[in-house]
Every structure is written in structure tokens, then in C-alpha cells.
Design brief:
The structure is a homodimer. Chain A is mainly alpha-helical. The first copy, chain A, has two domains: 95 residues, Winged helix-like DNA-binding domain superfamily/Winged helix DNA-binding domain (Arc Repressor Mutant, subunit A, Orthogonal Bundle), CATH 1.10.10.10; 89 residues. Helices cover 68% and strands 6% of the residues of chain A. Chain A has seven helices and three strands, in the order ααβααββααα. Chain A has a three-stranded antiparallel β-sheet. In chain A, a hairpin with a 6-residue loop joins strand 2 and strand 3. In chain A, helix 1 runs antiparallel to helix 2. At the A-B interface, helix 1, helix 5, helix 6 and helix 7 of A face helix 1, helix 5, helix 6 and helix 7 of B. Chain A binds a DNA duplex through helix 4.
DNA sequence: GGGCATTTTCAGAACTTCCTGAAATATTTG
DNA sequence: CAAATATTTCAGGAAGTTCTGAAAATGCCC
């Protein structure tokens, strides 16, 4: 690796690699529900050794103060970025969660709470609209069949969601150190 | 459940429940990367007993022909909606995948292919920018530390992603009927 | 191959989301 | 508590996405 031999060159290459990492992570965040910039800020904090302050983030990503402030706040809300402080410095600094598995399970739990749970609640409500037990005595056969099909569909879906929730619970309960052995268990449990 | 006793009433309630289901599913699709309408079309096909044609979808969801066509095509691409035909009818009809677990694993595999794999490829490229082995002999300590930190971070992330990929592989290999027993295995394997 | 039914495409309109920058608010320090 | 510094908020504008509707393309039947 002669390429990275002079100090300036190393700095340059690392910075370039960081920039590309930030771009890739940002694009991915966009594909998921997170805004591109928020994901970029997260990437920057992940890849940087030192905690950064708002101005560092603004300068490095070329974004406005408002945007930086909002994005950092949102990341704090998600629980994957922490506040940090430097002695004799009044500014707030920020650093990303260092353990990748913890980061992952935190995001998963947060998304479940924000996106899955309200949907499941609505689905139960919708299921209740058409009754737990069917009294369609006066109805014609076509209407009855429709009703039964509808309920069967929703029940299947709800059973499935319930199963996936239990699966997700079991998975996110795993500790960072146990990940590898769990994969072995899973793969072994399914030898076709 | 006296509410649902006359034929007209049953039809009305089922239709209303369908509408609410479509709305909920559509909103959820929006929160994930899928467009709201595409998710609504999917919901409609899931909840309806009969296969539907483009005009049925347009009428029921009040969307344009173009939109309906695009959404149906995209759902076919994703592999969670199939073409169907009716004898003596030239129109194309569409129906959703009936097994929920199959639908789920199909979506998971598709997202992996479209969104995860390109990201992973980029990450490997980025990792290669800063070398497999470090030759920073001429560099000062600070630059060296930065480089090492950067590489360590990327390596950790890549190892993690690799682990999750294996996990996802093992999970999506499970057949519909085996889901329940897998959950038991997972939960049992983790009694704190 | 002409006529008819159906599907696809796509330019621009409508809508949504995101970002900026400056003003308002909060916090620390002398 | 006033000045200095740091942070948050938000109206308006920029950027991005989704949808429409009509025109083009495709496929089918006699």
C-alpha cells in the first residue's frame, strides 16, 4: 500500500473514504423512512473518532444550522446518538452509539413502536367492525361469503403479525455477544 | 351482532371495513419506501375475494388509469401480485399472493436485492480505499490513529452486516408451516 | 390487415417533503 | 442581570415524488 504513505495523503484518502461512506449511508437512509440528511449526520458521527458539535456537522456536510439542529435532535430522539461535553467548552457535542448491534436493536424497537404498533391497533379495530362471531342469518349467500372471506383474511394477517412480533422480540432480546451463536442455532434448525 | 343482520347492511359494513383496511395499509406503505397508492392497490387485492381488473381498481380507489397500471406493474415486479384471466374476457385480472409468510419473505428478499446488496458492495469498495493492511510508516501519529479508527469502524460494520445477512437468510428459508416452531426455538434459546 | 379493446407511457400538474436563514428562545458567564 | 454564546423554531422557497389524462403502443379477432 504505497498509496497511503505520506501524512497528507493519508488524511486525504481517509477524508475521501469518509465522504463516500456518508453518501452511501445517506442514500440508504433515504430508501428507508429516514431523511437523507439525518442519515448523513448519523454516518458522520459513526465514522468520526471524536464527538462533533453542531458547527462541525454544518461545515462538514454543508448544511444549514436549522437542518443540523433538527437532524441531531431527531437522532437523539431515536436513541442512536448521545450528547457529549468537552471541559471548558460550552457547546454541545454529539457522538453515535458505538455498538452496532445495540444501534440496530434500538432502531428496530423504535420503528416497531412508531410504525408497527399503531397499524396493529388499527387492524384490530377494523377486525372488530365485522364482529367476532358472525350472525348473518338474514343475509344472502353472497354477502355471507364476502363477510367470511374478509374476516378470514384479517384473522390470518393478525395471526401472522403476532408471530413476527414474537420473532422480533426474541431477536432483539439477544445481546451483542450472542449474535453469532444465534445464527448458528437458526441455520442448524433448518437443514433441508 | 344484530348490527350485521340485513344483506345490505352486511355489504355496507364489509365495504367500510375494506376501505379502512386499505387506508391503513396504504399509510404503512408510505412509511416504508413504497408509494401510498401502490400499497393501497396491494391492500385491495389482498382483502378482496375475487381477482380484479384495472378498471375495478380505478373505480374502487378513485385513481387514474395510468396510476393503476403503474402500480399493478410494480406489484408484479415485486412478485407479490399475480396475473389472472377469466374465460371469455380479454382483460387482465390481478390477485395478491395468498400466503402471508410467502408474501413477507418475497418482499424481504426483494428489498435485500434492491437496497442492501448495492450498499454492501459500496461499503466493501470504500473499505478497500484505505487498504487491507496498513503501511503508514511515514505518517504522523494522529493521521495513523485516524486511519486505524476508520478501518476498524468499517470492519466492524461489515462483520455485523454479514452476520445479519446470514440471519435473514436463515429466517427467509423457513417455510410457512415452520414459523411457529422457529419462534419457540428462538425464545427458548434465549432464557435469561 | 382493419377495427376494436386493452395496456403502457410520459409531459406536465399537484402534492409532499425537506432545507434555509433569520428571528426567537434558552443558557452560561462575568 | 446584561452580554455573549449556543440552540431551536418556523415561514417560505427549493427539490423531489406521485398522479393524471390523453396519446401511443400493443395485442386480439374476424
Amino acid at each position: 500500500m504505497a498509496r497511503a504513505s505520506s501524512p497528507q495523503n493519508i488524511e486525504r484518502v481517509v477524508t475521501e473514504a469518509q465522504d463516500r461512506f456518508i453518501a452511501v449511508w445517506g442514500k440508504m437512509g433515504g430508501a428507508w423512512g429516514i431523511s437523507r440528511t439525518m442519515a448523513e449526520v448519523h454516518a458522520l458521527l459513526m465514522i468520526t473518532a471524536e464527538p462533533l458539535c453542531t458547527d462541525d456537522v454544518m461545515d462538514r456536510l454543508q448544511i444549514s444550522r436549522g437542518n443540523a439542529s433538527m437532524s441531531l435532535r431527531a437522532l437523539l430522539d431515536w436513541g442512536i446518538v448521545y450528547r457529549a461535553h468537552k471541559r471548558g467548552d460550552r457547546k454541545e457535542y454529539f457522538e453515535a452509539e458505538r455498538d452496532v448491534w445495540t444501534m440496530f436493536t434500538t432502531i428496530a424497537r423504535e420503528r416497531k413502536k412508531r410504525e408497527i404498533e399503531p397499524v396493529v391497533a388499527s387492524l384490530y379495530e377494523i377486525r372488530d367492525m365485522t364482529g367476532r362471531t358472525i350472525d348473518a342469518s338474514g343475509a344472502d349467500a353472497a354477502a355471507k361469503a364476502k363477510l367470511e372471506h374478509h374476516n378470514e383474511r384479517l384473522d390470518t394477517l393478525l395471526r401472522f403479525i403476532h408471530a413476527v412480533e414474537k420473532m422480533a422480540e426474541a431477536l432483539t432480546a439477544i445481546e451483542s455477544a450472542e449474535v453469532t451463536s444465534t445464527i448458528d442455532t437458526l441455520s442448524a434448525g433448518h437443514k433441508d
